[in-house]
Specification:
The chain has 129 residues and is mainly α. 85% of the residues lie in helices and 0% in strands. About 6% of the residues have low confidence.
């Protein structure tokens, strides 16, 4: 009976070691996913900001050029839509950028904590309450 318990303990121990190595791969994939998410958010934010500023400059220029006369309605409408498009891209890009950075930081902190708990052989013990 003692041999059976010992064998079951070692089998469980080996399976738990394999599970730890798979988790590091999952963490690596997640870090890559969140870095990509962060880059996408940054690109959307930069394009949105540039579009908003360009639309704002064109919108102000058309009102300053015409002075008292009424500016053409189709150009005003187009420039207004450009500004709103920039605001829309900013509204999408900033949260994606932020969420990607926060989740990436949490995974990196988790990996650092996980690496501190392991010994030179890759085996560690953590007790949490």
């Amino acid at each position: 009976m003692k041999k059976l318990i010992t064998i079951c303990f070692f089998v469980f121990f080996v399976l738990s070691l394999n599970a730890q190595s798979k988790n590091s791969l999952v963490f690596g994939d997640a870090v890559g996913k969140y870095k990509k998410m962060q880059k996408t958010g940054a690109v959307l934010s930069i394009i949105g900001g540039a579009t908003f500023i360009a639309g704002n400059i064109m919108y102000r220029k058309i009102y300053n050029d015409f002075g008292i006369n009424e500016p053409p309605g189709d150009r005003v409408k187009t420039y207004r839509q450009v500004m709103l498009g920039g605001v829309g891209l900013l509204a999408v890009g900033v949260p994606i950028w932020t969420i990607g950075r926060v989740k990436e930081r949490h995974i990196e902190i988790g990996l650092v904590r996980f690496n501190r708990l392991t010994s030179a052989n890759g085996i560690g013990l953590k007790i949490s309450f």
